[in-house]
Amino acid sequence: MPAYDLCGLGWTDELAASLEANHIPGRVAAQHRGAYVLYTEGGEIRARVSGRLAHEAAAPAQLPAVGDWVGFRDGVIHAVLPRRSVFQRTSAGRETLRQVLAANVDLVFIVASLAGELNVRRVERFLTVAWESGAAPVVVLTKLDLCGDPTELVLEVESVALGTEVIPVSAVTGEGFDRLEQQLLPARTVALLGYSGVGKSTIVNRLAGRELLRTREVGEGDEGRHTTSHRELVVLPSGALVIDTPGMRELQLWDGDEGMDASFTDVEELAVDCRFADCSHTREPGCAVLRAVDEGVLPLDRLRSYRKLERELRAMEIRKNVRLRQEETRKWRVRSRAGRERAKWKRSGR
Ligand code: GDP
Ligand code: ZN
User: Fold this and answer.
1) S-S: 147 plus which of 50, 83, 114, 206, CB 3.0-4.6 Å?
2) Which atom of ligand 1 has the smallest separation from the CA of 198?
3) pLDDT(162) > 90
4) Which tens digits make up the pLDDT trace of 204-226?
């Protein structure tokens, strides 16, 4: 059981100042139903939250999550120390169901693939998520070896990622990894965001110098499944730390309703003034969004991206939810039947 150097885990003076005198500091490395694994100066320990902390937490978001610094004593966590950054998922905007996916992330790698179609709008969305969390983003474009000349794509991404570093990499040739390594300063905590298949595990394994993520899956087969046998906060050889939780992996576009609100606040704010609450901003009278476009307040391109993302979200919802799809089909049939009947009725000259 190795002891940890607190500074190496990201401990700061501010954190020290917020720790109660009789508490010992630890950083949450894994969590499973109220059971936590903490990295501490005395090594790894298991802990539970105190009844009082569990009781007083007004929302699950106030309970410890992976990456959190906590104050504990005798295997009992009494306090969650102030977070530098937080990634969370809200269920349909309900504050009480807000769930923290990772805390105290310093740097987010937003990962997208150069092979196939690169969706710049998605990168833009992930950038919004990152900035809102309080962590700083870096865009990593993978599979450089499968892409001819990335210059144009890189420029395109740079145009939406103002001031953010964009790093093309290839896990096959190793190109670009030196630039990633430069980001991995000791005690910095890194997390990765991006769609499944873009190469996140490949990056983490390469930076870790071992099959970190495969190792994890092996431990998942046994009885309690997520027996806290795997760690979701891992110290890399460079001294940086990487957080990889299932929740972060699933933080994709279908979490997107709130995400859309977030990245399209301009459109959403205008929409408040639309005459109809369910205005689709396409042709309705009294549409404040269209008026803003007319007046040159809102660029037409913004409205186009908004509609496109809305369609994507909807398409994804429909794909995900077969019942909804059947419902759509039914409505469509009813509508077209009604249409046919109306036509017949008209033809019959009544
Ligand atoms: P994740 O779902 O984002 O974790 O993606 P993985 O890391 O599992 O990678 C998905 C697939 O892409 C795997 O078959 C990888 O071997 C492959 N892959 C990842 N990075 C690269 C790369 O830079 N070049 C090429 N050619 N393939 C890659
Ligand atoms: Zn409208």
Assistant:
1) 114
2) 3
3) no
4) 999 988 766 544 444 444 433 44
